[in-house]
Amino acid sequence: MARILEYLLNPELNCDSFNFVTKSETLIRSPREKLVQGLALAVLLLLGGLAFAGPSGVLAWSENLKLLEQRNAHIANLKADRDELKNRVGLLDPKHADPDLVGELLRRNLNVAHPDEVVIKLD
To answer: What residue ranges are annotated as transmembrane (predicted)?
Structure first.
């Protein structure tokens, strides 16, 4: 009880839980401690800045979402192209090739035509 009265009457004392310490004991004593605490604060501020404005931070989320949408659209186009090519490969299977597609490819790649066909060139 006497310690509590001493605390209430003496403003130089601080109460930390049940331990009483003076204000001079709570201050940083050496320049090395100040340097260590300053560096720790700088590191924490740097990490906070990177978490907010870094390449994977809060500000980059909207840009990443836009890139994700663009890449998903590109993937959808590539899948459509792949499906079209897969269909053409299936039609060119040597065991049961589509005669119309084979004839079209021969005429286009080898410049051949039947004797009764008329070729009209478009410029």
So the answer is: 39-61
